[in-house]
């Protein structure tokens, strides 16, 4: 019986050995050049060899496009290949910034760009403000001992998992002239409202849809910050019969402030880059009421009948500088948070 029980084990060991021999040979074949390379460049420099594939991939799809984009921004003409485009220096940037007053887009030579800047600034202010307030309120509620708390956390995070295009198409089906919302309004005797055609309504709804789609991500960050606050602080406040609003203002908000700063900076970066939802919902309309900077770059380079790659590249460089400044702000805030 003992020999019968041990027979399958021997077969299993033999099968493993059958695959172990080629694997060992393969490892030796890889090991020999790696050892030779390590002797040549030293052990400390071997780390660069392992990150070289990722660095090459990153350079090909990030650094090289950045360089090409900058070359396009200082060249002119309608040709696509950089070698066929004449050098014009800062002419494209001068054209963008040729304004009588930067607060009045109609006084600018390229007024379409500055309307995009004004719309993006207005959208970012309203969207970030609403995003932070609603994310904070949702995080505080979801941090309480409520029934089905896990379910509601999943529900609020679910829109983040959806594609921005899917989100925008869904809300466009709801908000269009013959959409679901207008059907509900007319069913109770009201008149149809052109939510995506009226300029004031259009800006309101793109802010609303953006907040709805991305709020779950920022709620998660704030919820993590709330759960990191020591419970004994709240217990001490409860023993002192401190009012809830004072507990929130004196304990919760100051300890949550580092997370709040991260949320604000990330929301600012996302707001400046917004494109998908606005493009699908309104297409930048009505007129130029909801044209954003990224939308302007897309239209100038690809959608207009006369494609101006140099001007679009210059506008994208300006946008890149703004995003780089916001990224530096985020890194500074993160380092300060880590030091604290």
Task: Give the structure's gist in a few sentences.
The protein is an all-alpha fold and 340 residues long.
Give a verbal description of the structure.
- The structure is a single chain.
- The protein has helices spanning 2-41, 46-73, 91-96, 111-142, 149-157, 164-175, 180-187, 199-227, 231-239, 244-272, 276-281, 293-303, 309-339.
- The protein is built from 13 helices and no strands.
- The chain has a domain at 115-339: MetI-like fold (Orthogonal Bundle).
- By secondary structure, the protein is mainly α.
- It is globular, with a radius of gyration of 29 Å.
- The longest helix has 40 residues, at 2-41.
Secondary structure: elements and pairs:
Blueprint: H1 2-41, H2 46-73, H3 91-96, H4 111-142, H5 149-157, H6 164-175, H7 180-187, H8 199-227, H9 231-239, H10 244-272, H11 276-281, H12 293-303, H13 309-339
Helix pairs in contact: 2-13, 4-8, 4-10, 4-12, 8-10, 10-13, 12-13
């Amino acid at each position: 019986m003992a020999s019968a029980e041990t027979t399958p084990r021997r077969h299993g060991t033999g099968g493993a050995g059958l695959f172990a021999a080629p694997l060992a040979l393969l490892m030796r074949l890889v090991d020999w050049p790696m050892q030779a390379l390590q002797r040549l460049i030293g052990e400390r420099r071997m780390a660069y060899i392992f990150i070289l594939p990722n660095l090459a991939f990153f350079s090909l799809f990030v650094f090289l496009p950045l360089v090409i984009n900058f070359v396009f921004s200082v060249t002119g003409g309608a040709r696509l290949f950089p070698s066929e485009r004449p050098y014009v220096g800062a002419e494209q940037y001068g054209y963008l910034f040729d304004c009588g007053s930067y607060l009045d887009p109609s006084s600018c030579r390229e007024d379409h760009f500055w309307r995009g800047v004004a719309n993006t600034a207005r959208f970012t202010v309203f969207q970030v403000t609403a995003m932070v307030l609603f994310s904070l309120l949702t995080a505080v509620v979801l941090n309480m001992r409520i029934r089905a708390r896990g379910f509601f956390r999943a529900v609020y995070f679910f829109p983040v998992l959806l594609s921005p295009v899917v989100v925008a198409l869904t809300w466009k089906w709801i908000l269009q002239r013959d959409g679901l919302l207008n059907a509900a309004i007319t069913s109770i005797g009201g008149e149809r409202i052109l939510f995506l055609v009226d300029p004031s309504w259009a800006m309101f709804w793109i802010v609303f849809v953006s907040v709805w789609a991305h709020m779950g991500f920022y709620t998660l960050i704030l919820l993590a910050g709330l759960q990191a606050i020591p419970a004994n602080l709240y217990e001490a406040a409860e023993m002192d019969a401190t009012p809830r609003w004072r507990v929130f203002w004196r304990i919760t908000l100051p300890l949550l402030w580092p997370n709040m700063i991260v949320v604000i900076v990330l929301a600012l970066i996302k707001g400046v880059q917004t494109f998908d939802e606005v493009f699908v919902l309104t297409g930048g309309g009505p007129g130029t009421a909801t044209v954003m900077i990224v939308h302007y770059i897309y239209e100038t380079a690809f959608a207009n009948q006369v494609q101006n790659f140099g001007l679009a590249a210059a506008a994208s460089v300006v946008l890149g500088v703004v995003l780089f400044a916001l990224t530096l702000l985020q890194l500074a805030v993160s380092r300060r948070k880590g030091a604290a």
